[in-house]
Amino acid sequence: MVEEGDDWRTAEIPVESGSQTEPITTLEKSPSTEEHTTTTKTSHTEIPIGPSVRKLLEEYNITAATVQPSGPHGRLLKGDILKYVKSNSLSKQDLGAVSNTPTKEEVIQTSQPTTTVFVPGEEEEFIDIPLTNMRRTIARRLTESKMTIPHSYISIESNIKAVSDLRKQLLGEGIKVSMNDFIIKASAIALQRVPALNAVWHGEEVKMSSNVDISVAVATDQGLITPIIKNAAYLAVDEISSSIKDLAVRAREGKLQLHEFQGGTFTISNLGMFGISEFTAVINPPQTAIMAIGSSRLVAGQDGQPQTNMTVTVSYDSRAIDETNASQFLEVFKEVMESPSLMIVGSSLSSTLKLAGSY
Predict the structure, then answer these.
(1) Among 96, 112, 107, 95, which residue's Cα sits nearest to residue 22?
(2) pLDDT tens readout for residues 92-105
(3) In whole angstroms, what is the distance from residue 228 CA to residue 100 CA?
(4) Whether residue 220 sits in one domain with residue 104
């Protein structure tokens, strides 16, 4: 209390024992302030804090302002908190590990109002992953493709029940082939019938190839690589299967020779095994088309009965291929997939099934 006649500015304010005092800043009006009305701006020190840093601050009961930030623009990093914890021998939720008496540096630092800024979802630490030569090449070619090739897209659905049944019949005869093997074969037949898509862009002209060499995208630790099934139209489905298995294994081991993955006239990329219903792929230059394979799914057919459909999407170079050619290619592909006998007629597989009486 201030007695009557005492100056309140010189009075002492009693402090309870053991309580911590906060620094008090007294603003004295200067003569110029009394004579002229001015606007005083309060300086705020912003301390950006991410979720992982905030969690550490809470776990160790640390005030953000007591830690010296080392990140760009005064950002607190996890390393700053961990360094502070180590230097002060702190334990989680150990309040006694920190002195209750603020240091001189802490008093100076907390004398200004501070605002903590929470940036949701922002991480403070990154891991640099150097690019391999293969990834550099892939990045360069994909960038070139998207920047220089006018991509157009067209899709179609096909009923794959018949080809699934044929695959089961072959499996029953001890012949293991995948759905992807049938897709490669059907694509090769379609490319023979519609050769406009079996071409490469060369300078200012299109070169159609007499051979159907299909590149198949294979994921490796170094990135995607596209080994080639040479003359796929003349191979039986089981021969395609053996060839792709051998190429895929050697691709992942890094043992492919240049001629086994450089070139090709058409590419197939299949993400159906990952449950991707449909997608679009980037053209692999100098090729002029690539087909993206989605997963199979049950749908209601025109008769109301359930059927298994698959969506494929062709990305094609509009400079070399028009929509009519692309449509014709997909129509043939659909026809072959829904009439799989076209893929085994005249091959040893047809003879095997006839002998077994299952075809």
Answers:
(1) 107
(2) 764 444 444 455 55
(3) 72
(4) no
Gap between the Cα atoms of 4 and 132, Å rounded: 84
Backbone torsions φ then ψ of 296, nearest 5 degrees: -85, 155
At 261-319, the pLDDT tens digits run 999 999 999 999 999 999 999 999 999 999 999 999 999 888 888 999 999 999 999 99
Structure tokens at 354: 């006839």
Domain shared by 263 and 171, yes or no: yes
pLDDT average, residue stretch 202-231: 93
- What amino acid occupies position 162? A
Q: Tell me what the pLDDT averaged over the chain comes to.
A: 82
In a domain, 6, yes or no: no
Lay out the sheet containing 151-159: strands in order across.
151-159, 306-317, 289-300, 266-270, 214-216, 228-229
What's the chain's length in residues? 359
- How far is Cα 118 from Cα 111, in angstroms, rounded to an integer? 22
Is position 141 within any domain? Answer: no
Residue span of the structural domain in which 107 resides:
45-126
In a domain, 347, yes or no: yes
Sign of CA dihedral 145, 147, 151, 157: positive
3-state secondary structure of 268: strand
**212 Cβ contact list (under 8 Å, min separation 6):** 188, 191, 192, 198, 231, 232, 233, 265, 266
User: Is the whole-model pTM more than 0.90?
Assistant: no
Contacts of 210 (CB under 8 A, 6+ apart): none
Q: How far apart are CA 151 and CA 280, in angstroms?
A: 10
Report whether pLDDT(42) > 90: no
- The Cα–Cα gap between 267 and 216 comes to 6
> Tokens 């067209």 identify what position?
154
Per-residue pLDDT, 122: 52
